[in-house]
Design a protein that fits this description.
Elements (H helix, E strand, L loop, with lengths): L8 E3 L1 H13 L5 H19 L5 E6 L3 H15 L3 E6 L6 H13 L4 E2 L11 E5 L11 H12 L4 E4 L21 E5 L2 E2 L13 E5 L15 E3 L19 E5 L6 H13 L4 E6 L4 H7 L4 E4 L3 H10 L2 E4 L7 H11 L5 E3 L2 H8 L8 E3 L3 H8 L3 H6 L1 H12 L2 E4 L5 E3 L5 E3 L12 H14 L4 H19 L13 H8 L6
Parallel strand pairs: 1-8, 2-3, 2-5, 3-4, 5-6, 6-7, 7-9, 10-19, 11-12, 11-14, 12-13, 14-15, 15-16, 16-17
Antiparallel strand pairs: 1-10, 17-18, 18-19
Helix pairs in contact: 2-3, 2-4, 3-4, 6-14, 8-9, 10-11, 14-15, 15-16
Pfam family, one: YjeF_N
EC number: 4.2.1.136, 5.1.99.6
Cofactor: Mg(2+); K(+)
Protein backbone atom coordinates (compact mmCIF):
# COMPACT_ATOMS: atom_id res chain seq x y z
CA UNK A 1 0.00 0.00 0.00
CA UNK A 2 1.40 3.38 -1.05
CA UNK A 3 1.29 6.57 0.98
CA UNK A 4 -1.18 7.99 -1.55
CA UNK A 5 -3.83 5.95 0.26
CA UNK A 6 -3.57 8.56 3.04
CA UNK A 7 -4.59 11.47 0.84
CA UNK A 8 -8.10 11.49 2.34
CA UNK A 9 -6.80 11.39 5.92
CA UNK A 10 -6.49 14.65 7.84
CA UNK A 11 -4.02 15.20 10.65
CA UNK A 12 -3.35 17.72 13.37
CA UNK A 13 -0.15 19.75 13.32
CA UNK A 14 1.13 17.72 16.27
CA UNK A 15 0.52 14.48 14.37
CA UNK A 16 2.33 15.78 11.28
CA UNK A 17 5.31 16.74 13.41
CA UNK A 18 5.33 13.21 14.81
CA UNK A 19 5.30 11.79 11.27
CA UNK A 20 8.15 14.09 10.33
CA UNK A 21 10.13 12.93 13.37
CA UNK A 22 9.42 9.27 12.54
CA UNK A 23 10.77 9.76 9.03
CA UNK A 24 14.00 11.12 10.49
CA UNK A 25 14.43 8.83 13.49
CA UNK A 26 12.95 5.54 12.27
CA UNK A 27 13.48 5.66 8.50
CA UNK A 28 16.84 7.42 8.58
CA UNK A 29 15.80 10.20 6.20
CA UNK A 30 17.58 13.40 7.19
CA UNK A 31 15.73 16.62 7.77
CA UNK A 32 17.68 18.20 4.92
CA UNK A 33 16.60 15.40 2.57
CA UNK A 34 12.95 15.96 3.52
CA UNK A 35 13.46 19.66 2.87
CA UNK A 36 14.98 18.90 -0.53
CA UNK A 37 12.09 16.63 -1.46
CA UNK A 38 9.60 19.31 -0.43
CA UNK A 39 11.38 21.94 -2.52
CA UNK A 40 11.44 19.63 -5.54
CA UNK A 41 7.75 18.78 -5.17
CA UNK A 42 6.83 22.45 -4.94
CA UNK A 43 9.02 23.42 -7.89
CA UNK A 44 7.39 20.73 -10.05
CA UNK A 45 3.98 22.17 -9.19
CA UNK A 46 5.17 25.72 -9.87
CA UNK A 47 6.32 24.72 -13.37
CA UNK A 48 3.12 22.80 -14.00
CA UNK A 49 0.81 25.58 -12.78
CA UNK A 50 2.73 28.50 -14.33
CA UNK A 51 4.62 27.02 -17.32
CA UNK A 52 5.44 30.47 -18.70
CA UNK A 53 6.98 31.78 -15.45
CA UNK A 54 10.51 33.12 -15.87
CA UNK A 55 10.88 35.42 -12.85
CA UNK A 56 10.12 34.37 -9.30
CA UNK A 57 10.59 35.93 -5.89
CA UNK A 58 10.84 33.65 -2.87
CA UNK A 59 10.00 35.08 0.57
CA UNK A 60 11.79 33.07 3.26
CA UNK A 61 11.25 33.04 7.00
CA UNK A 62 13.82 31.77 9.53
CA UNK A 63 12.28 28.32 10.07
CA UNK A 64 12.17 25.10 8.08
CA UNK A 65 9.48 26.55 5.81
CA UNK A 66 12.04 29.13 4.80
CA UNK A 67 14.50 26.29 4.20
CA UNK A 68 12.08 24.80 1.68
CA UNK A 69 12.01 28.21 0.01
CA UNK A 70 15.79 28.56 -0.27
CA UNK A 71 16.09 25.14 -1.90
CA UNK A 72 13.22 25.87 -4.30
CA UNK A 73 14.97 29.11 -5.24
CA UNK A 74 18.16 27.18 -5.99
CA UNK A 75 16.21 24.74 -8.19
CA UNK A 76 14.56 27.59 -10.07
CA UNK A 77 17.92 29.32 -10.59
CA UNK A 78 19.41 26.07 -11.88
CA UNK A 79 16.52 25.82 -14.35
CA UNK A 80 17.40 29.21 -15.81
CA UNK A 81 14.82 31.36 -14.05
CA UNK A 82 15.55 34.82 -12.69
CA UNK A 83 15.23 34.37 -8.94
CA UNK A 84 15.35 36.75 -6.00
CA UNK A 85 15.18 35.68 -2.36
CA UNK A 86 13.86 38.07 0.29
CA UNK A 87 14.41 37.15 3.92
CA UNK A 88 12.27 37.98 6.91
CA UNK A 89 13.71 38.03 10.41
CA UNK A 90 16.75 36.40 11.92
CA UNK A 91 19.19 34.10 10.17
CA UNK A 92 17.90 30.51 10.01
CA UNK A 93 19.33 27.66 12.03
CA UNK A 94 19.81 23.92 11.54
CA UNK A 95 18.66 22.44 8.24
CA UNK A 96 17.23 25.79 7.15
CA UNK A 97 20.69 27.35 7.54
CA UNK A 98 22.10 24.62 5.31
CA UNK A 99 19.41 25.37 2.75
CA UNK A 100 20.33 29.06 2.84
CA UNK A 101 23.98 28.14 2.25
CA UNK A 102 22.92 26.09 -0.79
CA UNK A 103 21.14 29.11 -2.23
CA UNK A 104 24.10 31.39 -1.59
CA UNK A 105 26.50 28.94 -3.25
CA UNK A 106 24.29 28.68 -6.33
CA UNK A 107 23.10 32.24 -6.83
CA UNK A 108 24.07 34.88 -4.32
CA UNK A 109 23.10 36.81 -1.23
CA UNK A 110 19.44 37.04 -0.23
CA UNK A 111 18.01 40.46 0.55
CA UNK A 112 16.60 41.36 3.97
CA UNK A 113 13.06 42.74 3.83
CA UNK A 114 12.69 46.40 4.75
CA UNK A 115 9.20 47.73 5.38
CA UNK A 116 9.62 50.73 3.10
CA UNK A 117 11.01 48.66 0.20
CA UNK A 118 9.14 47.95 -3.01
CA UNK A 119 8.29 44.39 -3.93
CA UNK A 120 10.22 43.16 -6.98
CA UNK A 121 8.34 42.40 -10.17
CA UNK A 122 7.81 38.70 -10.79
CA UNK A 123 5.64 36.15 -12.55
CA UNK A 124 5.16 34.18 -9.32
CA UNK A 125 5.75 34.90 -5.65
CA UNK A 126 6.63 31.96 -3.40
CA UNK A 127 5.49 32.14 0.22
CA UNK A 128 7.94 30.35 2.52
CA UNK A 129 7.56 32.69 5.51
CA UNK A 130 5.83 30.53 8.11
CA UNK A 131 5.00 26.84 8.28
CA UNK A 132 2.63 24.85 10.44
CA UNK A 133 4.04 26.12 13.73
CA UNK A 134 2.39 29.54 13.62
CA UNK A 135 -0.75 29.71 15.78
CA UNK A 136 -0.82 33.47 16.42
CA UNK A 137 -1.03 36.60 14.34
CA UNK A 138 2.19 37.35 12.43
CA UNK A 139 4.35 40.10 13.91
CA UNK A 140 4.13 43.63 12.54
CA UNK A 141 6.96 43.39 10.00
CA UNK A 142 5.67 40.07 8.65
CA UNK A 143 2.10 41.37 8.57
CA UNK A 144 3.10 44.36 6.48
CA UNK A 145 4.95 42.11 4.05
CA UNK A 146 1.98 39.73 3.76
CA UNK A 147 -0.35 42.65 3.10
CA UNK A 148 1.98 43.91 0.37
CA UNK A 149 2.16 40.46 -1.25
CA UNK A 150 -1.63 40.13 -1.20
CA UNK A 151 -2.04 43.57 -2.74
CA UNK A 152 0.33 42.83 -5.62
CA UNK A 153 -1.12 41.55 -8.87
CA UNK A 154 1.18 38.51 -8.74
CA UNK A 155 0.02 34.91 -8.15
CA UNK A 156 1.36 33.23 -5.02
CA UNK A 157 2.55 29.67 -4.43
CA UNK A 158 2.43 28.81 -0.71
CA UNK A 159 4.74 26.12 0.65
CA UNK A 160 2.96 23.71 3.02
CA UNK A 161 0.51 26.32 4.39
CA UNK A 162 -0.27 29.95 3.52
CA UNK A 163 1.62 32.02 6.06
CA UNK A 164 -0.68 33.33 8.79
CA UNK A 165 -3.22 30.49 8.50
CA UNK A 166 -3.50 28.17 11.51
CA UNK A 167 -2.97 24.74 9.93
CA UNK A 168 -4.73 23.06 12.85
CA UNK A 169 -7.99 25.02 12.88
CA UNK A 170 -8.39 26.95 9.62
CA UNK A 171 -8.44 30.25 11.54
CA UNK A 172 -6.43 33.36 10.66
CA UNK A 173 -5.60 35.21 13.91
CA UNK A 174 -4.28 38.08 11.81
CA UNK A 175 -3.40 38.72 8.19
CA UNK A 176 -2.59 35.68 6.02
CA UNK A 177 -1.25 34.98 2.54
CA UNK A 178 -3.89 34.57 -0.16
CA UNK A 179 -2.37 31.88 -2.35
CA UNK A 180 -3.42 30.73 -5.79
CA UNK A 181 -1.78 27.34 -5.14
CA UNK A 182 -0.67 25.63 -1.94
CA UNK A 183 1.58 22.57 -2.01
CA UNK A 184 1.39 20.76 1.31
CA UNK A 185 3.86 18.10 2.40
CA UNK A 186 3.84 14.64 4.02
CA UNK A 187 0.23 14.64 5.30
CA UNK A 188 -2.90 16.72 4.89
CA UNK A 189 -3.27 19.29 7.67
CA UNK A 190 -6.89 19.46 8.74
CA UNK A 191 -7.02 23.26 9.03
CA UNK A 192 -6.40 23.72 5.31
CA UNK A 193 -9.89 22.41 4.51
CA UNK A 194 -12.31 24.49 6.57
CA UNK A 195 -13.12 27.98 7.83
CA UNK A 196 -11.01 30.88 6.60
CA UNK A 197 -8.71 28.49 4.75
CA UNK A 198 -11.17 28.62 1.87
CA UNK A 199 -10.05 32.19 1.12
CA UNK A 200 -6.32 31.55 1.58
CA UNK A 201 -5.29 28.15 0.22
CA UNK A 202 -6.38 28.36 -3.41
CA UNK A 203 -5.86 25.09 -5.27
CA UNK A 204 -4.40 22.54 -2.86
CA UNK A 205 -1.92 19.81 -3.75
CA UNK A 206 -0.60 17.23 -1.28
CA UNK A 207 2.77 15.54 -1.84
CA UNK A 208 3.78 12.77 0.57
CA UNK A 209 7.42 13.16 -0.54
CA UNK A 210 7.77 9.52 -1.53
CA UNK A 211 7.57 8.31 2.07
CA UNK A 212 6.61 4.64 2.56
CA UNK A 213 3.33 3.54 4.06
CA UNK A 214 5.03 2.17 7.18
CA UNK A 215 5.40 5.77 8.33
CA UNK A 216 1.65 6.00 8.99
CA UNK A 217 1.27 2.70 10.83
CA UNK A 218 -0.05 3.26 14.34
CA UNK A 219 -0.88 6.90 13.62
CA UNK A 220 -4.67 7.21 13.29
CA UNK A 221 -5.88 10.26 11.44
CA UNK A 222 -7.77 12.97 13.31
CA UNK A 223 -10.41 13.41 10.59
CA UNK A 224 -11.12 12.55 6.98
CA UNK A 225 -12.15 14.18 3.74
CA UNK A 226 -15.75 13.32 2.94
CA UNK A 227 -15.87 10.75 0.12
CA UNK A 228 -18.44 10.51 -2.64
CA UNK A 229 -21.11 8.17 -1.27
CA UNK A 230 -24.12 6.66 -2.99
CA UNK A 231 -27.19 4.73 -1.92
CA UNK A 232 -27.57 1.31 -3.54
CA UNK A 233 -30.15 0.93 -6.34
CA UNK A 234 -33.68 0.26 -5.18
CA UNK A 235 -35.15 -3.20 -5.33
CA UNK A 236 -37.32 -3.64 -8.40
CA UNK A 237 -40.34 -4.44 -6.22
CA UNK A 238 -39.90 -1.43 -3.90
CA UNK A 239 -42.95 0.58 -2.90
CA UNK A 240 -43.36 3.93 -1.20
CA UNK A 241 -43.71 2.35 2.22
CA UNK A 242 -40.19 0.98 1.90
CA UNK A 243 -38.65 4.40 1.35
CA UNK A 244 -39.51 6.24 4.52
CA UNK A 245 -42.21 8.67 5.59
CA UNK A 246 -40.76 12.06 6.53
CA UNK A 247 -42.78 14.56 8.56
CA UNK A 248 -41.47 18.11 8.18
CA UNK A 249 -42.58 20.44 10.96
CA UNK A 250 -42.44 24.22 10.54
CA UNK A 251 -43.69 27.09 8.46
CA UNK A 252 -44.85 29.77 10.87
CA UNK A 253 -46.72 32.75 9.38
CA UNK A 254 -44.67 34.12 6.47
CA UNK A 255 -42.28 31.16 6.20
CA UNK A 256 -44.19 28.63 4.11
CA UNK A 257 -41.28 28.63 1.65
CA UNK A 258 -38.87 27.19 4.23
CA UNK A 259 -41.00 24.15 5.00
CA UNK A 260 -41.83 23.63 1.32
CA UNK A 261 -38.12 23.58 0.41
CA UNK A 262 -37.46 21.09 3.19
CA UNK A 263 -40.28 18.80 2.12
CA UNK A 264 -39.47 19.00 -1.58
CA UNK A 265 -35.80 18.23 -0.91
CA UNK A 266 -36.89 15.13 1.00
CA UNK A 267 -38.98 14.02 -1.99
CA UNK A 268 -36.15 14.68 -4.45
CA UNK A 269 -33.78 12.72 -2.19
CA UNK A 270 -35.94 9.63 -2.34
CA UNK A 271 -38.39 9.71 0.56
CA UNK A 272 -41.44 7.60 -0.23
CA UNK A 273 -43.85 9.93 1.55
CA UNK A 274 -43.48 13.45 2.90
CA UNK A 275 -46.02 15.10 5.17
CA UNK A 276 -45.94 18.73 6.23
CA UNK A 277 -47.19 20.01 9.58
CA UNK A 278 -47.59 23.77 9.27
CA UNK A 279 -49.88 26.72 9.78
CA UNK A 280 -53.30 26.21 8.19
CA UNK A 281 -52.83 29.42 6.19
CA UNK A 282 -50.00 27.78 4.23
CA UNK A 283 -51.95 24.77 2.96
CA UNK A 284 -53.41 26.29 -0.21
CA UNK A 285 -50.03 27.59 -1.38
CA UNK A 286 -48.25 24.31 -0.62
CA UNK A 287 -50.88 22.18 -2.34
CA UNK A 288 -50.82 24.42 -5.38
CA UNK A 289 -47.02 24.49 -5.66
CA UNK A 290 -46.20 20.87 -4.83
CA UNK A 291 -49.20 18.56 -4.61
CA UNK A 292 -46.98 15.55 -3.80
CA UNK A 293 -46.45 17.03 -0.33
CA UNK A 294 -49.19 15.95 2.09
CA UNK A 295 -49.73 19.26 3.85
CA UNK A 296 -51.66 19.52 7.12
CA UNK A 297 -52.67 22.59 9.07
CA UNK A 298 -51.99 22.05 12.77
CA UNK A 299 -52.87 24.41 15.60
CA UNK A 300 -51.03 22.57 18.33
CA UNK A 301 -49.72 19.25 19.73
CA UNK A 302 -53.07 17.46 19.67
CA UNK A 303 -53.37 17.83 15.89
CA UNK A 304 -49.68 16.99 15.42
CA UNK A 305 -49.84 13.65 17.24
CA UNK A 306 -51.61 11.59 14.51
CA UNK A 307 -49.00 12.81 11.99
CA UNK A 308 -46.20 11.83 14.34
CA UNK A 309 -47.68 8.37 14.74
CA UNK A 310 -47.53 7.74 10.98
CA UNK A 311 -44.05 9.19 10.38
CA UNK A 312 -40.73 7.36 10.36
CA UNK A 313 -38.47 10.42 10.56
CA UNK A 314 -38.97 14.06 11.58
CA UNK A 315 -37.47 17.21 10.09
CA UNK A 316 -37.95 19.90 12.72
CA UNK A 317 -37.24 23.60 12.46
CA UNK A 318 -37.48 25.18 8.99
CA UNK A 319 -39.58 28.31 9.46
CA UNK A 320 -40.78 27.02 12.83
CA UNK A 321 -40.39 30.25 14.77
CA UNK A 322 -39.76 30.48 18.50
CA UNK A 323 -43.22 31.54 19.63
CA UNK A 324 -45.77 29.49 21.52
CA UNK A 325 -46.93 27.58 18.42
CA UNK A 326 -43.43 26.60 17.32
CA UNK A 327 -42.31 25.74 20.84
CA UNK A 328 -45.29 23.44 21.44
CA UNK A 329 -44.72 21.55 18.18
CA UNK A 330 -40.99 21.34 18.82
CA UNK A 331 -41.46 19.92 22.31
CA UNK A 332 -44.01 17.35 21.08
CA UNK A 333 -41.73 16.27 18.24
CA UNK A 334 -38.74 15.80 20.52
CA UNK A 335 -40.84 13.79 22.97
CA UNK A 336 -42.06 11.45 20.22
CA UNK A 337 -39.02 9.17 20.24
CA UNK A 338 -38.72 9.36 16.44
CA UNK A 339 -35.38 9.76 14.62
CA UNK A 340 -35.04 13.39 13.59
CA UNK A 341 -33.12 16.20 11.97
CA UNK A 342 -33.16 19.55 13.79
CA UNK A 343 -32.33 22.85 12.14
CA UNK A 344 -33.00 26.59 12.29
CA UNK A 345 -35.46 27.58 15.04
CA UNK A 346 -35.47 23.97 16.22
CA UNK A 347 -31.85 24.58 17.21
CA UNK A 348 -32.57 27.95 18.77
CA UNK A 349 -35.23 26.35 20.95
CA UNK A 350 -32.79 23.58 21.84
CA UNK A 351 -30.26 26.18 22.95
CA UNK A 352 -32.89 27.58 25.33
CA UNK A 353 -33.92 24.13 26.62
CA UNK A 354 -30.95 21.77 26.13
CA UNK A 355 -31.38 18.04 26.10
CA UNK A 356 -29.29 15.04 25.09
CA UNK A 357 -30.81 12.82 22.43
CA UNK A 358 -31.38 9.09 22.93
CA UNK A 359 -32.74 8.52 19.39
CA UNK A 360 -30.84 8.87 16.10
CA UNK A 361 -30.53 12.62 15.63
CA UNK A 362 -28.73 15.03 13.33
CA UNK A 363 -28.30 18.71 14.24
CA UNK A 364 -27.31 21.09 11.43
CA UNK A 365 -26.20 24.41 12.96
CA UNK A 366 -24.47 27.26 11.22
CA UNK A 367 -21.75 28.91 13.37
CA UNK A 368 -24.17 31.34 15.02
CA UNK A 369 -26.55 28.55 16.03
CA UNK A 370 -23.61 26.45 17.19
CA UNK A 371 -22.50 29.33 19.38
CA UNK A 372 -25.91 29.51 21.03
CA UNK A 373 -25.94 25.74 21.57
CA UNK A 374 -22.54 25.94 23.28
CA UNK A 375 -23.14 29.21 25.14
CA UNK A 376 -20.26 30.92 23.32
CA UNK A 377 -19.68 33.54 20.67
CA UNK A 378 -19.61 32.82 16.97
CA UNK A 379 -15.96 33.90 16.88
CA UNK A 380 -15.11 31.30 19.52
CA UNK A 381 -16.82 28.58 17.50
CA UNK A 382 -14.96 29.58 14.34
CA UNK A 383 -11.65 29.76 16.19
CA UNK A 384 -11.61 25.95 16.32
CA UNK A 385 -14.42 24.43 14.28
CA UNK A 386 -13.14 20.90 14.92
CA UNK A 387 -13.30 21.23 18.69
CA UNK A 388 -16.69 23.00 18.49
CA UNK A 389 -18.29 20.30 16.32
CA UNK A 390 -16.97 17.51 18.52
CA UNK A 391 -18.10 19.20 21.70
CA UNK A 392 -21.60 19.66 20.28
CA UNK A 393 -21.78 15.99 19.28
CA UNK A 394 -20.72 14.92 22.78
CA UNK A 395 -22.98 17.35 24.60
CA UNK A 396 -26.15 16.58 22.65
CA UNK A 397 -25.56 12.92 21.76
CA UNK A 398 -26.22 13.67 18.10
CA UNK A 399 -24.41 13.79 14.80
CA UNK A 400 -23.48 17.41 14.13
CA UNK A 401 -23.22 19.17 10.78
CA UNK A 402 -21.35 22.41 11.45
CA UNK A 403 -22.12 24.32 8.27
CA UNK A 404 -19.92 26.82 6.50
CA UNK A 405 -16.94 26.73 4.16
CA UNK A 406 -15.61 23.23 4.71
CA UNK A 407 -18.66 21.88 6.57
CA UNK A 408 -17.81 19.42 9.34
CA UNK A 409 -19.75 16.26 10.18
CA UNK A 410 -19.01 15.07 13.73
CA UNK A 411 -20.10 11.87 15.46
CA UNK A 412 -20.39 11.56 19.25
CA UNK A 413 -17.74 8.81 19.09
CA UNK A 414 -15.17 11.33 17.81
CA UNK A 415 -15.24 10.57 14.10
CA UNK A 416 -15.24 13.66 11.90
CA UNK A 417 -15.39 14.28 8.16
CA UNK A 418 -14.79 17.52 6.25
CA UNK A 419 -16.76 18.38 3.10
CA UNK A 420 -14.65 20.05 0.43
CA UNK A 421 -17.53 20.69 -2.01
CA UNK A 422 -19.86 23.67 -2.07
CA UNK A 423 -19.43 27.28 -3.14
CA UNK A 424 -20.18 30.85 -2.03
CA UNK A 425 -23.33 30.95 -4.15
CA UNK A 426 -24.89 28.66 -1.55
CA UNK A 427 -24.80 31.51 0.97
CA UNK A 428 -28.44 32.31 0.32
CA UNK A 429 -31.78 31.72 2.01
CA UNK A 430 -33.28 28.26 1.98
CA UNK A 431 -30.09 26.20 1.54
CA UNK A 432 -30.25 24.93 5.11
CA UNK A 433 -33.91 23.98 4.70
CA UNK A 434 -32.92 21.82 1.73
CA UNK A 435 -30.17 20.09 3.69
CA UNK A 436 -32.57 19.25 6.49
CA UNK A 437 -34.92 17.57 4.03
CA UNK A 438 -32.13 15.65 2.31
CA UNK A 439 -30.77 14.19 5.54
CA UNK A 440 -34.25 13.34 6.82
CA UNK A 441 -35.00 11.46 3.58
CA UNK A 442 -31.81 9.44 3.93
CA UNK A 443 -32.63 8.56 7.53
CA UNK A 444 -36.03 7.38 6.31
CA UNK A 445 -34.36 5.14 3.71
CA UNK A 446 -32.47 3.25 6.37
CA UNK A 447 -29.21 5.15 6.78
CA UNK A 448 -27.70 5.62 10.20
CA UNK A 449 -27.58 9.20 11.47
CA UNK A 450 -23.85 9.27 10.70
CA UNK A 451 -24.23 8.05 7.13
CA UNK A 452 -27.34 10.13 6.48
CA UNK A 453 -25.45 13.26 7.50
CA UNK A 454 -22.36 12.37 5.47
CA UNK A 455 -24.25 11.37 2.32
CA UNK A 456 -26.66 14.28 2.71
CA UNK A 457 -23.99 16.91 3.14
CA UNK A 458 -22.10 15.54 0.14
CA UNK A 459 -25.16 15.42 -2.11
CA UNK A 460 -26.25 18.92 -1.06
CA UNK A 461 -22.81 20.48 -1.63
CA UNK A 462 -22.20 18.70 -4.93
CA UNK A 463 -25.66 19.70 -6.15
CA UNK A 464 -24.75 23.28 -5.29
CA UNK A 465 -21.60 23.01 -7.39
CA UNK A 466 -23.52 21.61 -10.34
CA UNK A 467 -26.13 24.36 -10.06
CA UNK A 468 -23.39 27.00 -9.84
CA UNK A 469 -22.10 26.15 -13.30
CA UNK A 470 -24.48 28.86 -14.46
CA UNK A 471 -22.91 31.29 -11.96
CA UNK A 472 -22.66 31.52 -8.19
CA UNK A 473 -24.27 34.91 -7.71
CA UNK A 474 -28.04 34.58 -7.83
CA UNK A 475 -28.07 30.85 -7.05
CA UNK A 476 -31.40 29.80 -5.50
CA UNK A 477 -31.98 26.94 -3.12
CA UNK A 478 -34.58 25.49 -5.50
CA UNK A 479 -31.91 25.37 -8.24
CA UNK A 480 -30.39 22.42 -6.36
CA UNK A 481 -33.46 20.18 -6.55
CA UNK A 482 -32.88 18.67 -9.99
CA UNK A 483 -29.12 18.15 -9.44
CA UNK A 484 -29.99 16.51 -6.11
CA UNK A 485 -32.19 14.01 -7.88
CA UNK A 486 -29.58 13.30 -10.54
CA UNK A 487 -26.73 12.88 -8.06
CA UNK A 488 -28.82 10.67 -5.81
CA UNK A 489 -29.34 8.33 -8.74
CA UNK A 490 -25.73 8.41 -9.91
CA UNK A 491 -26.74 10.21 -13.11
CA UNK A 492 -24.59 13.32 -12.75
CA UNK A 493 -20.91 13.94 -12.22
CA UNK A 494 -19.12 16.89 -10.67
Amino acid sequence: MHAATHHRDLYTVEQVRALDRRAIDDLGITGFELMSRAATAAFVQLCRHWPEARRIVVFCGPGNNGGDGYLLAALAHGAGMAVEVIELGDAPRGDAAGARDSWQRSAGIPRRWQQEALLPLADVYVDALYGTGLNRAPEALASSLIERINAAAVPVLALDVPSGLNADTGECPGVAIEAELTVSFIAAKRGLYTGQAATKVGALQLDTLGLPDILWQGMPSDAGLLPVMQLPPRARDAHKGDCGHVLAIGGEHGTAGAIRLCGEAALRSGAGLVSIATRAENIFALNSARPELMSHGVHGPQELQPLLDRADVLAVGPGLGQGAWGHALWLTALDSGKPLVVDADGLNLLAREPQRFSVPAVLTPHPGEAARLLGRTTAEVQRDRFASARELAQRYGAVIVLKGAGSLIANPDGRLDVCTWGNPGMASGGMGDLLTGVIAALLGQGCSAWDAARIGVGLHARAGDLAARHGERGLLASDLLEPLRALGNGLAHD
